[in-house]
Amino acid sequence: MRDLLAMLTDEQYSDLTIEAEYDGEPPVRFPVHACVLSRRSAVFCAALSHGTREAASRRIRLVDTPPLVLKALLHYLYSDDFAEVERVLREAVEAGGRDAAAGAAAVPQATAEQRMAQLQALLAVAHKYQVGRLLCWSEQQLCRLVRAESVCSLVELARVYDASELLQHCLRFMKAHQAQVVARA
Asked: Residue 55 belongs to what H/E stretch?
């Protein structure tokens, strides 16, 4: 799988561009390979077949996915490695923590809020593109972050994205920590 990931990072022989426009920021372009995306995601497969506009233009434009999350998804699709997903997410936090004025490269840890936001977005994109293993992994990671202040929003997220493991975990948490959850509501 490292060879496939090298294809993504080297942009060698790419035949498709995914363009992520998000939150008013300039678009971020990812040169990718239609055969890899089609093989790993039924949604990409459908988008790239049957005479679609995307198949003809060799461009997919996304407006609902943060570029970082799209990058993590692509790295997973090419590598099938959750450590690679973690690396992409961690690099984003590290890049955000560099002190340009001092020239120091601090290596901060993601705050609980940052981690939660990353994983929620990853869960959503894994659901959207029907990447089952990544969806399950995202659920498991979110289960570790359930707290009284986040449980209600995670229940909603689990319902929207059919994340049954996350939903069950949240419901068990709510039952075990009823007083804390009610106090936060």
From this structure: helix 53-57
